[in-house]
């Protein structure tokens, strides 16, 4: 079951970044601006951030097979709509539908894994899960670069559609139900506030990466999003005492889970930030094609995937510290190395730094995912995985907006001072990588505080609430 869910999750999450290299093709084919074309990725993250908070409630109400069928069915509908989209608006709608299906898959995978896999074996299994959660976004640009050599941007969806359909059919034949559905109510005020808060935060952060008046609009939307999230938190704290919260914040009372959440968020920020900067550097400054760019970053993504199961086995044997601490240091070193990008930096050096970053993330994500989720009691698994997924999207949007804003501000200032555009853009990119490297220093501090294994005081307890049936 876990293998099936990993495969399905890999297919759907791959689509989050698969259009990164297709932006120029979309602009020419649909006659849209670069800012509009970016929405094919922004809308995906926006929908994920808005839908994921509801998945904790949804997964408790339906069986595992129902959740799988609904998630993959919605994803297939969105993929088909995107493939035949006659206009940009229809393509955007297809991406939103795709994201709604994708938003269910990762919490479904994580929740099922924590229920069916014994604790002593979770590291190895979580290593395979890392392939879906972390490697799929990293491989998206590489895969799209290869597919775009075969035809138009529609090929990206045409290729995915039959693969996803086969995975869906095979999964439904082999999938078993885990537990029984739990009838529970949902607080629609929490749903609306969460959608506006998390979705607004992602949207506002994406606007910060643009120039002109939209930066001011982005700041306003970010502030409104943060205010809505504050209302959401207050509402959940009240519901924890009197009803059923949409997202149970008692997950944050578990110290190991909270630390894991912080480390994963910063890690995704660094990964998505570098994924935005590297294609800009390689294509706009060094003149590489989308295919050449994809091939250059592919080894790092593949290394991340290949190492996932190995890292999981090492975690089962030695615990987290021998992996997470070196991984965090590797992230800082690789991003620090990217601050030295130039018009003459050898491509093997770019390849080496990117591979170091991906390997470091592999060494970090698998143990941290396992530790964080393992520290929660069973009745909080679905809530913990939905919170994890939501913050991943927010961190991804923040990382993208941060590096683009820093790069644009620095290069704009230098151009105003009389510096030529190319050196100014290069300096802006160096500073953006430097800011990302500075933020990842936090991961070293957090890694030092993580336990090697789940402490006895944080081992999943089975209180009365924990005995409630889990629907997935």
TrEMBL record:
Residues 1-455 form the Major facilitator superfamily (MFS) profile domain. It is found in: Cell membrane. One of its GO terms (biological process) is response to antibiotic. GO terms for molecular function: transmembrane transporter activity. It is a multi-pass membrane protein. Pfam families: MFS_1. InterPro entries: EmrB-like, MFS, MFS_dom, MFS_trans_sf. Signal peptide: none annotated. The chain crosses the membrane at residues 38-59, 66-84, 96-117, 129-147, 153-172, 184-203, 215-235, 256-282, 294-311, 323-343, 355-376, 388-409, 429-448. PROSITE patterns: MFS. GO terms for cellular component: plasma membrane. Keywords: Antibiotic resistance, Cell membrane, Membrane, Transmembrane, Transmembrane helix, Transport. Belongs to the major facilitator superfamily. EmrB family. This is MFS transporter. It comes from Streptomyces glebosus.
